[in-house]
Predict the 3D structure of the following.
Amino acid sequence: MGILTDKSIIVTGAAGAIGHATAQILAREGARLMLVDVNREGLAARAQELRAAGADVVTLTADVSRSADVQAFVSATLARFGRIDGLFNNAGIEGHIAPTWEYDELEFDRVTRTNVNGVFLGMRHVLPVMIAQGGGAIVNTASIGSERGLAGACTYNASKHAVVGLTRTAAAEAGPKGIRVNCVMPGVIDTPLLESVLGPLFNGDIALGKQTLGRIAPLERIGHPLEIGEVVAFLLSDAASFVTGAAWSIDGGALCTIRH
């Protein structure tokens, strides 16, 4: 029996590296899953893989920045599973890189809609369900950018700072109702997106790029998406029954040392 056996959990951003890895671990621990992403093809592929491994999985293509879409996947989860025990509010985008004084206003709004509005809307529509059923757990995805001013990423940093604030506020409000709300703050994680960034920066030597970035952290390596998923699974489980309002850094110790 896994630590999440028969728990119904929503994972947003499920077509991405962290969302997919976390869904694998949640399924391993016995959860029934609603996978959500704006990427229809990627979502279908992830779901097919999990079903082949025996997981109970349904999907819904949705934009987390749209209230109607969020309501739709909440309703679909209830229709399929009858309750919502957990939400991994993970969908997010990085945005362009530019100094604050040159940052495009439309791009700022685009990133904020997904990273801030999306997290808010997920909680806005899931919390009433959890309150009515008498409990539940939510994990939001923040970033080590929630604790530092990473140059060139003003909107990403601002949005991830906001995720921590939303998490702490919801934890304070929903705790007396038996609901826990936490967030994770991933550091540098080995994903296809990271490789696409490292290629140009290191003249195609992605391995060197990963090694170089890994030196930021005391553990002297970058992380794997599965390492995020393991912490998320714990926070969504009853094993974390006295953990709420927390921002968990999963960064190999990078926040112990980095200045920028």
User: Anything to note?
Assistant: The radius of gyration is 18 Å. The chain has nine helices and seven strands. The mean pLDDT is 94. Residues 145 and 157 are 5 Å apart (CA to CA).
